[in-house]
Amino acid sequence: MKKRNSLFAHHNLKELLDELSGKGVKLEQVPDTNILLAKKGKVNNIIIDSYTSLVPFNIGLAISNKNVCRHILQENKLPVAPGELFAPQEKNKAIRYARQLTYPVLIRQENSQRNEKAIPDIDSDEKFNTAYTSLSQLGENILVEKMFAGQKMRVFLSRSGFLHVLKKDNYASLSTSFIAEEKENDQSWRQLESTSKNIYTDMTDDTHKSLLVVAKKILEAFPPMPYICFEIIAKNMHKPFLPGSYVIAEIYHSYALHLSYNARKATTEKKVSQMIAELMFP
Amino acid sequence: MQTEKKKSPKLDFNTGLFLQELRKRKVRISPIGSTKVYKASYKDHTELICDLNVSTTSFPAGWITGDKFYTKKILQHAGIPVAEGKVFTYAAKQDALGYAKKLGFPLVLKPAQGTHGDYVYVGIDSPEELQKKIDVLTEEYIGNGYYLIEKYLPGEEYRIFYTENDFFAVVHRLPAHITGDGKQSIFALIKNENYNRMNPRKNCLCEIRFDDILFDHLEKTGKNIDDVPKKGEVVQLRLSSNVSKGGNCYDVTGQTHPSVKKLAKKILSTIAGLSYVGIDLICKDIRISLQKQNYFVCELNPVPGLSLHCAPEKGLPQNTPGALVNLLFPESKDK
C-alpha cells in the first residue's frame, strides 16, 4: 500500500481520495489497519483495500468467485467463454476437458480478483500440466476456459448511464514504428512504457454504441450494484456487439481508477473517480 | 461437448430457514446454476442471495466484521471494550510466543478469519500448550494467514442478533456439558445426549464434538472420557460455547438489560454499511446494566446463525428469518 497524505490506501484509490477530499469529506484511518472512515455530515462510508461501501456484501462475494460470476452471467443470457470448474486433484479430468475445448485455454483460481492467479495462453498438454500443478498448490478449485481472440476492453457503467471504456493492449504486441510515433507525439508515453506491460487507451467515444446495451444488461444481472466494471473481449469494438462477436471475460468490484487517469488519449471530461465520489456522497 | 450435470450444493440449515421465510412471503426463489446463489424476486425487486449474505450490508462492513483483527481495531477506535490482544502472521511464531509471555496466561488463540469456533483455543495456560496449538492451527487451517492471541477473560457468553430496523434478540450460550447419572461413562453420556438431540432434531442444538479440544479439556480438569461421573455431577466438556460444537443455547431476550441494545445500536452505527450483525458479548450477567459490570465484545459475525434465536433449546423463539426478510424485502412484510 502506498502512503498518501499520511493515509495508507490502495494505489487504485488515490484519485478517489482526492475527489472525496475535494468534496469536503473527512477521511480518517483506523490505526494499524487499511480501513478508511469517510464522513460528511450524516453520511458515513467505509473504504477498505479497493472496496467502497457502494459494493454490497453479497455482490462483492459473488464477483470474487469466478465460477459464480459465470453462472450469473449465463443465467442472464450473457456470453462467457466455454469453461468448467475442477477440484485441485482433478488434473486428468481437467486436461481432457482442455483438449475438448481445444487450445489455447486459460486457467484460474475460482476465487481471485487479480490476474496473477490466472495463467493464460496454454497451448499444449505439457504447459497445461505445469500450470495446473502450480495453481492446484493453492488449494482452491480451478476454472478451465477457452481463450477468446479479440480486443480487450475495460468498461465502467453507472446506473445513471455514465460510461467509460479503456482498450487494453499488451506492449509487446505493438509495432516498433507505432511506438516510435507515439513517443514523438505523446510525452506521457515514455512513463507508460516504463511502468506497464499493458497500455490502456481511452476508447469511450470510439466504441460501437451497442456496448452500452450489453453493459446495461450486465449491470442488471448484479442488483443492486450502482455501477458495474467488467472486462470484455470483442472481435471488433467498432462493430455491433452481437452474439458470437464478444465474451465477458471478468467482472470487477472496482474500476482501475489510476488507469483511467493515465490512459492515452483520455477525452472524457468527467472522471470515473468523480462519479464514484458522487455516488458515495450525493 | 459432454459435460457432467452438476448437482446443486447442499443447502446450509440457516440458509434453508431464510429461503423458507422468503417463500412464506411470496418471494420467488430460483437457484443460479449449480452454485449456492439464489435469485429472489418480489414484484419488480430482485436480489441475489449468497448463503445469508445480502445486499443491505456493504462489502467493507461484511469484510471487517468477518475479520477478528479488523473488528477489534474498529471497535477499539470507537471506544467499545474488546479483549487485549494482537495479530500475527503464520510465520511470526516466535513474536507470538514472546507477546504471549508479556500478556500473561491464560490466553485465547484464534484464526483472524473463521466461523463456528473452528481452531479457537480458549484457556491456553502455558507457552508449551500455546506453541503446540499454533502449530496445529498454522498447519491445518488456511484462513487468511493470520491469527490472534488475546487475554482470556472469563464470563458468561451471549450472542446478540441486531438489525438496523431495531430487531433485537439475545441467547445465552453455555459450553457443552453433560450431567452424570452415576452409571454411565462420560463417553456414553455424550453419545446419549447426541442421540437425543438429533432424534428428532427439535431445535438449534448440534452434536457434542469429540475433538482435540474436548479431550484436552478433560485432561486439564483431571478427567478421562471413560470416567463415570456421580449422579447430578455436571462435567463441562470445553471452555468455548459455540452451539456448532455442542454448546447449549437459551433465549434471554426478555431478561436483557436495555443497555445491551444500546451497545448493539452503537456497534451497528460504528461500522457504516452494516445492516445486521451477530455480537458475541462476554459479561457477568446480561440482566444487569453494562455500566455496572466489566464486559467486552469478543467478536462480530456478519452472517450470524438464525437458528440459535428462532429455535433455542429453551426460552421464547425469536423470528430472526423474518427479521432478515424485512431487511431485504420490507415491501413483503405481513404477507
- Low-pLDDT stretches of chain A: 1-6
Query: How widely separated are the two ends of chain A?
Result: 28 Å
Helix fraction of chain B, binned, reads: 25-40%
Rg of chain B, nearest Å:
21 Å
**SSE string of chain A, helix = H, strand = E?**
EEHEEEHHEHEEHEEEHHEHEEHH
Number of strands of chain A: 14
Shape of chain A: globular
Largest binding interface between chains: A-B, 41 and 37 residues
| Arithmetic mean pLDDT of chain B | 93
Adjacency order of strands in the biggest sheet of chain A: 12-11-10-13-14
Distance between the termini of chain B: 46 Å
Overall radius of gyration of chain A = 20 Å
Beta-strand content estimate of chain B: 15-25%
For the report, how would you describe the main beta sheet of chain B?
5 strands, antiparallel
Summing up helix and strand content along with how strands pair, one would put the structural category of chain B as alpha+beta
pLDDT < 50 stretches of chain B: 1-5
Structural class of chain A: alpha+beta
Helix and strand run of chain B = HEEEHHEHEEHEEEEHHEEHEEHH
**Roughly what percent helix of chain A?**
25-40%
Averaging pLDDT over every residue of chain A, what do you get?
A: 86
Helices and strands, with pairings:
The complex is a heterodimer of chains A (282) and B (335).
Chain A: E1 2-4, E2 7-9, H1 14-22, E3 26-29, E4 35-40, E5 43-48, H2 57-64, H3 66-75, E6 83-86, H4 91-101, E7 105-109, E8 118-122, H5 125-136, E9 142-146, E10 151-158, E11 163-170, H6 176-185, H7 188-195, E12 198-202, H8 210-220, E13 227-234, E14 246-252, H9 257-262, H10 272-280
Antiparallel strand pairs in A: 1-2, 3-4, 4-5, 6-9, 7-8, 7-9, 10-11, 10-13, 11-12, 13-14
Helix pairs in contact in A: 1-10, 4-5
Chain B: H1 13-24, E1 28-31, E2 37-42, E3 45-50, H2 59-65, H3 68-77, E4 85-89, H4 93-103, E5 107-111, E6 121-124, H5 127-140, E7 146-151, E8 156-163, E9 168-174, E10 177-179, H6 186-198, H7 212-220, E11 234-236, E12 248-251, H8 258-270, E13 276-283, E14 295-301, H9 307-310, H10 320-328
Antiparallel strand pairs in B: 1-2, 2-3, 4-7, 5-6, 5-7, 8-9, 8-13, 9-12, 10-11, 13-14
